[in-house]
Design goal:
With 279 residues, the chain is of the alpha/beta class. 25% of the residues lie in helices and 20% in strands. The protein has one domain (3-192, 244-277): Collagenase (Catalytic Domain). The chain is globular.
């Protein structure tokens, strides 16, 4: 089965709105935030099997929604579930699925405008359910390193938490949810450079970039409105053909798929990290 074609068709018809204002903001998840004891594990190149390893797991999500006595909740469970439906489609090939097991209204106006330096520690004390994926739905997200972002997550070895900024109308940004869940299970950006810059030829794909060889080298370039790659083109006879349709890229409006090795990496990280304790 051609998962690339099959999956992108599924996403096209499963989601009415794949992009929105928050979905075009940067991601606040960084390699340097990894727990050092898990760094070596996450730097292991992806399993290169040509079939997808199955996780066979349904994960429980605790949805923490910013609210207070003077304003309505920032979003609704119905809107969250719309995003979860697309998340489930995205992870179906490796048999990971997700459902909201608890809805928690965070009755504190401070959480509307989430500030990582001020709010994260407090939220993790009073609004955090162990062994579930805690997703915090807020209005805006301000991080220590990057300022305002669309969201951020913690790699395996970190808290079981993701923070997502929703749109003004309460719409949950689907691309952000899927992208951050990829980080949560150990995927890096397709344009990652902390391990070195991946060559256009990909001859260093196992030790540089995102450490995954079936995602092409990505210079974090630009695309047009029809998802045609524009620049940078490359150098000499080598030309970039970046994975503009990959969930872990920054070509937000074009995202619709993971690769086989990305699925295998997430399954391996689930089975061999602290994520295995999740309900």
């Amino acid at each position: 089965m051609n998962y690339r074609l099959f999956f992108c068709v599924i996403i096209t018809f499963s989601a009415i709105n794949l992009t929105n204002a928050q979905g075009n903001l940067k991601c606040g998840t960084h390699v340097k935030s990894m727990n050092p004891s898990f760094q070596k594990m996450l730097q292991t190149p992806a399993n290169e099997c040509n079939y997808i390893l199955q996780a066979r797991k349904k994960f429980q999500i605790t949805a923490h929604i910013a609210s207070d006595s003077l304003q309505p909740p920032i979003t609704s469970l119905a809107q969250i579930n719309e995003a979860i439906a697309v998340l489930n489609a995205a992870f179906e090939p490796n048999d990971m699925s997700f459902e909201v097991c608890e809805e928690n209204n965070m009755a504190d106006f401070h959480f509307y405008e989430w500030n990582q330096a001020d709010d994260q520690a407090y939220a993790f004390i009073y609004h955090y359910i162990p062994n579930t994926i805690n997703i915090y739905f807020v209005s805006t997200v301000e991080t220590i390193d990057d300022g305002e972002v669309g969201g951020y997550a913690f790699f395996p070895g970190g808290p079981e938490a993701i923070v997502v900024a929703v749109d003004d109308d309460g719409t949950v940004p689907i691309t952000t949810v899927v992208h951050e869940m990829g980080h949560f299970f150990g995927l890096f950006h397709t344009f990652e450079t902390d391990f070195g810059v991946e060559n256009i030829s990909q001859d260093n794909c196992a030790t540089a970039g995102d450490l995954i060889c079936d995602t092409e080298a990505d210079p974090q370039g630009s695309v047009d409105d029809e998802c045609t790659y524009e620049s940078p083109l490359g150098n000499g006879d080598d030309f970039y053909t970046p994975p503009i349709d990959n969930w872990m890229s920054y070509y937000t409006s074009c995202a619709c798929r993971f690769t086989i090795q990305q699925y295998n990496q997430m399954t391996e990280n689930y089975l061999n990290s602290n994520r295995f304790n999740l309900w």
